[in-house]
C-alpha cells in the first residue's frame, strides 16, 4: 500500500457513502455521506435512534446491499459496484462474522453443529470444526449446551451461541445489528461480557449498531448517527 496516512492501517474505511431507497414516486434519502474508519482491534458502536439508517449502513458494510455512491474498503478489498458475485460471497464467508437481533440458529442442528457451520462452509474438516466450535462455546460458558438443540436453550443462550458462530472462523470483522434487542437486562449484560471478553482476548474488530446506550457504552469508541450522517460532534 502506498498510502502513508493513518487510514492505510485501517481495517475498514468508508467515505461519502450515500443510499436512497426508492419506492415509485417516493424516496427516502437514508445515508447522506457517511465517512469513518476503524482500526484493527477496535470495538466501535454506532448509536442512533430507530430509523436513523443503522441497519442500512451495516448491510452495506457486510455487502448485503450496495450503496448509491461512496467507497468501502475492508481488509484491503474495495467493495465496488463492479465486484464479482463470487468475490462478494468469499468476502462474506471469510471476512465477516454477522450477529443479528434474531439469532437465526438452525433449529434442526445442535448448538455445536450450528457453531461448526461457518467452518464447514469454509471447507474445514468435521473433526477440526467440532474441536474449534467446542472450544469457543466452552470459553463463553456454554460447554454444557453443545448437544442441545436451539429449542432446548434460552433466548439469552441462543444469542451467545450466535456470538460463538460469528467468531469461530476468526473473521477480521464482526458486524452486529441490535444484537441485544431481544434480550432482558440480565442477558444483555451477559452478552456484553462475552463480547468484551472475546474482543479483548482475540483482539476482535467489532462494529455494533444499536439504539441501546448500555451496549454502546461497552464499546471502545462510539459514533452517533443522525440525519443520515455520522454526527462529528459525537457525545
Ligand atoms: N428496503 C427498504 N426500502 C425502503 N425503505 C427502507 C428500506 N430499509 C429501510 N428503509 C427506511 O430507511 C430508514 C432507515 O432504516 P434502517 O436502516 O432500518 O434504520 P435503523 O436500523 O437505524 O432503525 C427508515 O426510514 C426505513 O423505513
Ligand atoms: Mg435497524
Description of the molecule:
With 235 residues, this protein is an alpha/beta fold. It has one domain: P-loop containing nucleotide triphosphate hydrolases (Rossmann fold, 3-Layer(aba) Sandwich), CATH 3.40.50. 34% of the residues lie in helices and 26% in strands. It has 7 helices and 10 strands. It has helices spanning 54-61, 85-95, 111-121, 126-139, 155-167, 185-202, 213-216; strands at 12-23, 26-38, 43-47, 69-74, 77-78, 96-99, 173-177, 206-210, 221-226, 229-231. Strands 6-7-8-3-9-10 form a 6-stranded mixed sheet, sandwiched between helices. A 4-stranded antiparallel sheet has the order 2-1-4-5, covered by helices on one side. A hairpin with a 2-residue loop joins β4 and β5. α3 (111-121) runs parallel beside α5 and α5 runs parallel beside α6. The radius of gyration is 18 Å and the shape is globular. Residues 1-5 have low confidence and may be disordered. The structure holds adenosine-5'-diphosphate (ADP) and magnesium ion (MG).
Concise account of the structure shown:
With 235 residues, the protein is α/β, with parallel strands linked by helices. The protein has helices spanning 54-61, 85-95, 111-121, 126-139, 155-167, 185-202, 213-216; strands spanning 12-23, 26-38, 43-47, 69-74, 77-78, 96-99, 173-177, 206-210, 221-226, 229-231. It is globular and about 50 Å long.
Amino acid at each position: 500500500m502506498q498510502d502513508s496516512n493513518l487510514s492505510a492501517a485501517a481495517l475498514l474505511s468508508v467515505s461519502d457513502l450515500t443510499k436512497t431507497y426508492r419506492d415509485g414516486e417516493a424516496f427516502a434519502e437514508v445515508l447522506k455521506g457517511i465517512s469513518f474508519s476503524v482500526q484493527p482491534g477496535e470495538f466501535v458502536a454506532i448509536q442512533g435512534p430507530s430509523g436513523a439508517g443503522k441497519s442500512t449502513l451495516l448491510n452495506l458494510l457486510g455487502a448485503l446491499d450496495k450503496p448509491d455512491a461512496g467507497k468501502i474498503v475492508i481488509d484491503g478489498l474495495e467493495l465496488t459496484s463492479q465486484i464479482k458475485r463470487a468475490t462478494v460471497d468469499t468476502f462474506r464467508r471469510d471476512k465477516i462474522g454477522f450477529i443479528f437481533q434474531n439469532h437465526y440458529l438452525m433449529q434442526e442442528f445442535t448448538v455445536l453443529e450450528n457453531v461448526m457451520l461457518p467452518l464447514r462452509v469454509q471447507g474445514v474438516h468435521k473433526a477440526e470444526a467440532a474441536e474449534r466450535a467446542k472450544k469457543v462455546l466452552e470459553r463463553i460458558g456454554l460447554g454444557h449446551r453443545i448437544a442441545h438443540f436451539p429449542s432446548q436453550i434460552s433466548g439469552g443462550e441462543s444469542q451467545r451461541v450466535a456470538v460463538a458462530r460469528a467468531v469461530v472462523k476468526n473473521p477480521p470483522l464482526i458486524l452486529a445489528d441490535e444484537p441485544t434487542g431481544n434480550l432482558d437486562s440480565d442477558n444483555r449484560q451477559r452478552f456484553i461480557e462475552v463480547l468484551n471478553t472475546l474482543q479483548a482476548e482475540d483482539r476482535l474488530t467489532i462494529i455494533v449498531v444499536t439504539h441501546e446506550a448500555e451496549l454502546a457504552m461497552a464499546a471502545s469508541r462510539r459514533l452517533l448517527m443522525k440525519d443520515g450522517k455520522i454526527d462529528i460532534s459525537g457525545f
